[in-house]
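Marked as duplicate of an earlier ticket. Keeping the data here for the record.
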Amino acid sequence: MANETTLIINETFLSIQGESTYAGLPCFFIRLAGCNLNCFYCDTTYAKKTQDGKAVAITKLLELAEASDCRLVLITGGEPMLQSGVSKLCSALINKQFQVLIETNGSVALNNLPKQVIKIMDIKGPSSGEAENFLLENLNFLNSRDEIKFVIADRADFDYALKLIKKHHLSEITNNILYSPSFGKIDPKELASWVIEQLPPGRMQLQLHKYIWSTDTRGV
């Protein structure tokens, strides 16, 4: 179809959601290619460049989602907000009665997303090397249904998270604040001990898919 909107897609697959408050639920994943950050602990380097994907029409993505028989869809990357057509994809999925989640690093404005989309915003800590690229204005586009995630690789990351939560009153925006140990970088027991010690708002989470499958398994 002429002038049909396409997105650069790295992969699509049906699995379980491994993170967020939706962890454990069956989920259809749409992974967009291309990212503007270079986090040292990145676990999806295979989707970092747009060359790592191919153009797929939104109508085709809708067909794939429908064929999965799963009504929960996660749009992720890379960084999905870099592609201008992502808002249109979200709207198209919502119109088909899908529940739509989007995972973003918070470095690109979120104001154009449909209000029904659940935003899972990953605020980068010092160990990522990308903490300065977070757009504070994006906090204005979050609501109580959205989620804020901090990937924790060391104590500095954890203290940074607590500082931001207090300074910007993040727990007044949403109760869905997540502390995720960077896989292979920190012992989860250590992060658990800090959470028990400090009793911060929110919860600790593990990346379920990395415990179910091997860490380098694609399509899960």
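See parent ticket for discussion. The longest strand covers residues 6-16.
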